[in-house]
Amino acid sequence: MFDKILIANRGEIACRVIKTARKMGISTVAIYSDADRNALHVKMADEAVHIGPPPANQSYIVIDKVMDAIRQTGAQAVHPGYGFLSENAKFAEALAAENIAFVGPPVGAIESMGDKITSKKIAQEANVSTVPGYMGLIEDADEAVKISNEIGYPVMIKASAGGGGKGMRIAWNDDEAREGFQSSKNEAASSFGDDRIFIEKFITQPRHIEIQVLCDAHGNGIYLGERECSIQRRQQKVVEEAPSPFLDEATRKAMGEQAVALAQAVDYASAGTVEFIVDGDKNFYFLEMNTRLQVEHPVTELITGVDLVEQMIRVANGEPLTITQDDVKLNGWAIENRLYAEDPYRGFLPSIGRLTRYRPPMETAAGPLLDNDKWQGDAPAGAVAVRNDTGVFEGGEISMYYDPMIAKLCTWAPTRDAAIEAMRDALDGFEVEGIGHNLPFLSAVMDHPIFIKGDMTTAFIEEQYPEGFEGVELAEPALKRIAAASAAMHRVAEIRRTRVSGRMGNHERHVGEDWVVTLQGAEFPVTISADKSGSDVSFGDETLRVESDWTPGDALARLTVNGAPLVLKVGKITQGFRIRSRGADLKVHIRSPRQAELAQLMPEKLPPDTSKLLLCPMPGLIVNVNVAVGDEIQEGQALCTVEAMKMENILRAEKKGVVSKINAAAGDSLAVDDVIMEFE
Questions:
Q1: For the chain, how far is it from start to end, CA to CA, in angstroms?
Q2: CB of 212 closer than 8 Å to CB of 225
Q3: Can you spell out the DSSP letters for 472-508?
Q4: By C-alpha distance, which of 211, 297, 296 is closest to 259?
Q5: Region of poorest pLDDT, from 226-240, 273-287, 487-501
């Protein structure tokens, strides 16, 4: 076995590989850019080598710099993680030339299957059903439009060397095809150093389901079930689960066997993923093969008990698989939510800055995972696992140079309903402050009827949130639970305040029993009576019992309301709290009846008028400006392009107007809400 492995990556996946290597007794080497000097993966590794400036194309994907780090440290093998150099055949060749093991598939498999155009041709030759498309190289936007018309709109424009949603656009007409081709080409060049583009038919109402395969160099190959990855935003996965709530055993077997056959056709040896689009009748179509570890691999590990990183290392060491297809049993259900540094209230635009608070829920093991990567028996009743794969820490910086993913929060339970409920609790207890993030959106998805039913497609986000995510409106029973909890917490805070103020004297000042709780536009007059173990909060004829050990100043409150658990994120505001729970962000005011009466007389503060300004919605770099002063613009017209976190974002006009002033030019770096241009 190897003594030392270099991880040619960063962030959570580098940390993930380090954990398994440590378990196997293998020392690790991290590489890092200037931006990652204090990153978690650097702190976790046994050694670390600096490789250059923050941009990936000057550090993490520069093969010569990574090779220098290998030589400096004497690493015997390299795990590439995902993204960056993980599917780069030239990198694998460079390693082979110096007798360094690549913890991934052979060069031939990377070349055949890592390139989406080539992999589709091989799949077609193997009589695998594929999505209609044009596999040749596309020279320019005019040719892209011509091909799109031949295939028939809508079409998907994709980077040949792409992944993670980068370099992908959907076009519904000629204008979008022309524009999408150029943006995809630009993103592909900056993210992968390869600007080749192909076009395929975009299948409406699809489900995205992928099969995990594992092969060795001795001719053995198995599949480890499937992952449902249909909840996506801009073709980037947000929620994954294993198994899929849609597949039956026959379809799973057919997809799995086809995936293994395809892998073995190119002498694949490592962990890999074969992606399919599946329609409503369970017809499946090969999309691509990812010749690397997938972001969402933890859900497969949780339902099979197989450590995929360990298996990759063992295969790279020349060992045969010790797991047969008959050994693979799918136990329970696992769900993964990707926590992104993206503001869901601003169209999921990237957010950067310092993590002033980062407190993930406590990780717990389910119990049935034992030695030798095998499950033994059924999970005990009520068993739940929580896993959080992350690469950040409290006080760390979220950089504009890399992918915005902060963490992958996973839960496992014996049933899908139990896994969803465990995820709800974990999300409620996940504290993140200092940046915009998508925790509220993830909570909303976990409570959405379509997700609960398991009837989602890849159009879920676009269809269910057509105007973007604006938070969650809670139903009255949930509002009452929060109102009761807030009133009880307010009473505790008031008692503490009187004690701290010194106005108690020899007698404790009486704290009132009657209050008015206002939240989400609703007003609840309540009466509180308390004892040593909790408070009874009465809403007229209905009384809710609140129990908690919450202390004023705690950012997280764990309570029970009528015996049912309730987790709230708590912040102090004047006359109440900012409460966040289940995707809702609420200002909860608790006032005396007289204060509530007077509050109704206060005028409402209106936000400033920014309708004649184009504001930069995220920290980023201006790629180009498409208009000039004096231009008449139409609704939906592209005004400029901003690049942030490896993604190009086209900013469009919200209405007709005339450009009166332009404050930024290509190459300028802007902060959030900087004024890009003004209109008459």
A1: 69
A2: yes
A3: ----HHHHHHHHHHHHHHHHHHHHHHHHHHT--TTSP
A4: 211
A5: 487-501
Query: Beta strands 47-52 and 27-33: pairing type?
Result: parallel
Question: What's the whole-model pTM score?
Answer: 0.82
What pLDDT shows up at residue 474?
95
Structure tokens, 435: 């940046």
Rg (CA), the chain: 27
Exposed e or buried b per residue across 562-595, where buried means at least 16 C-beta atoms within 10 angstroms of its C-beta: eeeebbbbbeeeebbbebbbbbbebebbbbeeee
DSSP character for 369?
A: B
Summarised one tens digit per residue, pLDDT across range 452-464 is 999 999 999 999 9
The residues annotated as belonging to the active site are: 288
Confidence of residue 367 (pLDDT cuts 50, 70, 90): very low
- Give the model's confidence band at 113: pLDDT under 50 very low, under 70 low, under 90 confident, else very high: confident
CA 412 to chain centre: 17
Tokens standing for residue 213: 């395969």
Burial class (CB in 10 A: 0-12, 13-18, 19+), 409: buried
- Cα distance between residue 578 and residue 569, in whole Å: 8
DSSP 43: H
Q: What is the DSSP string of 78-137?
A: EE--SSTTTT-HHHHHHHHHTTPEESS--HHHIIIIISHHHHHHHHHHTT--B--EE-S-
Residue 316: phi and psi, rounded to 5, are: -65, -25
